[in-house]
Amino acid sequence: MEILWILIAFICGLLAVQVSLPPLVGFLAAGFVLNLIGVEENDLLRQLADVGITLLLFTIGLKLRLADLVKTEVWAGGLVHISLWCVVVVSSLLLAGFLSAPLVGDLSPLGTSLVAFALGFSSTVCVVKLLEDSGELRTRHGKLALSILVVQDIVAVVFLAIAAGETPSVYAPLLILLIFTAPLLKSLLNRAGHDEMLPLAGFLLALGGYQLFELCGVKGDLGALVIGMMLSGHSKANELSKSLLSFKDIFLIAFFLSIGLAALPTLETFAIAVVILGLLVLKFMIFIGVFAILRLRARTIFLSALALTNYSEFGLIVAYISNQAGWLSSQWLMIIAVASAMSFVVTSTLYPRAHSLYQQHKEKLKEWETKRHLPEDIFDWPREVEILVIGLGRVGRGAFSALYERVGSRAWGMDAKAELVMRLQASGMHVFTGDGENADLWEAVDTEQIKLVLLALPSIKDAASILKQLRAAGFQGAIAGIARYEDDRQALLEAGVDHVFNFFTEAGVGFAEDSLALVKSQSRASGSMAR
Predict the structure, then answer these.
(1) 387-390 and 499-502 as β-strands: parallel, antiparallel, unpaired?
(2) What is d(CA 500, CA 480) in angstroms, rounded to the nearest whole number?
(3) CA nearest 104: which of 307, 332, 295, 444?
(4) Which residue in 11, 343, 386, 431 is deepest, having the highest Cβ count within 10 Å?
């Protein structure tokens, strides 16, 4: 029977990809297909789904920076939005129930609240995929959207912990001592290397955190999130997240299949799902209003709101848990599942056009801006910049130091990481904080004085995104970049970079020339000794 799950999931996922939809839309459809042909959910599928959810929370924790979450626009934006959404949707459902709308009138007050709550989340899987594909994970709006998602996920995890209905044991307060194990966990990650031991370490840490919290009477998913957060600042956190990506996605397929196996949508439930899909307009407008009140810039407001305007796999998890607890009927689980799948289609269709949509409505959207911007959105640009190095990792710092020795204060470095910039400034380097992927930054500065930009970034997508923003702002100077592989080099050249330094090829040439010089010097020394 397991091969049938895989076959149907593959076929439906492949069909979804062919029409430019997220594969998870196909996986939800696969669950319905399996249900239709008489396949029933079993313990194996439930266990695989649980592992998928645990890995999802662990990888979210790996990307979580507390410094981002404590920003007012993040925690207030996430909490205020979901609160307003729940008030409006609960009111709408109660009104529909009073008017005897099909199925809505059967909802209990608790069920009504749970439906609104489940629909309040945005899809981590869908949003991350869209931002990755567009190279916008590190942009101002991308980081804001991801941080809002984490706030929503924390709210969901708290709900899951409460929904478990378990009283924490007397040992639960001791979990706070986990903070002192962070050095040990990071040392374990260092020793795991880079190959198959790294994802295995990830499984150990995620499932170990899950089991530890379960033993203390606390929802295990919260343990996976906490352990991930403890490792979020580690140098290998991003590598670990990438190594677990395929495993997480595979296990989550079981979760989406289990949703479809719970029940089949009827014409009536499908019609209600379409009506709920229309509420996305309301969700978008609430995001716009909340972000505007929190003094964000118009571009950030629009792009973040558009990315977050969908329903969530976490909402499905909330609905699924509520259904298992007997608080929500299988029909409403199906309605939320169908509405979520359709919302993924809407977002996947609209977001690739987000920047052109913003340009079309830019003047109206600017009216939502307040006169006072957040400190992060005020750009302090040095006046004498002629050569700019973007990205101050090891390569970027090396390039900047070499340029500074030759041209002095005309060379400046820029990086989006404020903590790194502060350290480099303390050592006397001419650097400043700035996000090259933020189009508002380039619109706010005069790029005519800049003659050369060096894109010293490890991500080709990030470099291509900055290049696009520079050209859109009218930059006419020269642009150089770095690449590790030949296909990356070609991609940057095709994107419009004037010169690309290939790490391996050009470093290899330099290594060979230095080695030959060593041979020549030894030959001269031998000849001298012979004489």
Answers:
(1) unpaired
(2) 6
(3) 332
(4) 343
CA distance 439 to 470: 8
As a whole-number percent, the residues of the chain with pLDDT over 90 amount to 16
Q: What is the pLDDT of residue 494?
A: 85
Q: Which residues pair with 481 in a beta bridge?
A: 455, 500
Name the β-bridge partners of 500: 481
Q: What is the DSSP letter of 180?
A: G
d(Cα 94, Cα 200) in Å, to the nearest integer?
A: 48
Alpha-carbon radius of gyration of the chain? 26
Average pLDDT over residues 288-309: 93
| Structure tokens belonging to residue 56 | 């999802």
Q: How confident is the model at residue 516 (pLDDT cuts 50, 70, 90)?
A: low
- Sequence-separated (6 or more) residues with CB below 8 Å from residue 279: 89, 92, 119
* DSSP secondary structure letters along 346-403: HHHHHGGGHHHHHHHTHHHHHTT--SSPPGGGS----TT-SEEEE--SHHHHHHHHHH
Tokens 């994970």, located at residue: 137
Query: Do 390 and 457 contact (CB within 8 A), yes or no?
Result: yes
In whole angstroms, give the CA distance from residue 496 to residue 478. 10
Contact 68, 215 (CB under 8 A): no
User: Which two tokens mark 201?
Assistant: 């370490």
Report how far residue 463's alpha carbon sits from residue 325's, in angstroms, rounded to the nearest whole number: 48
Q: Is 455 exposed, middle or buried (0-12, 13-18, 19+ CB in 10 A)?
A: buried
User: What pLDDT does residue 203 have?
Assistant: 92
C-alpha 53/C-alpha 41 separation (Å) is 17
The C-alpha atoms of residue 291 and residue 373 are separated, in whole angstroms, by 12
Phi, psi at 120, each rounded to 5°: -75, -15
Q: Give residue 85's pLDDT.
A: 95
Lowest mean pLDDT among 11-15, 109-113, 418-422: 418-422
Domains of the chain by range and CATH? 2-366 (1.20.1530.20), 379-515 (3.40.50.720)
Of residues 528 and 463, more confidence is placed in: 463
Q: How far apart (Å, rounded) are the C-alpha atoms in residues 140 and 26?
A: 31
Alpha-carbon distances, residue 389 vs 268, 454, 482 (angstroms): 58, 5, 12
Q: How confident is residue 353, by pLDDT bands cut at 50, 70 and 90?
A: confident
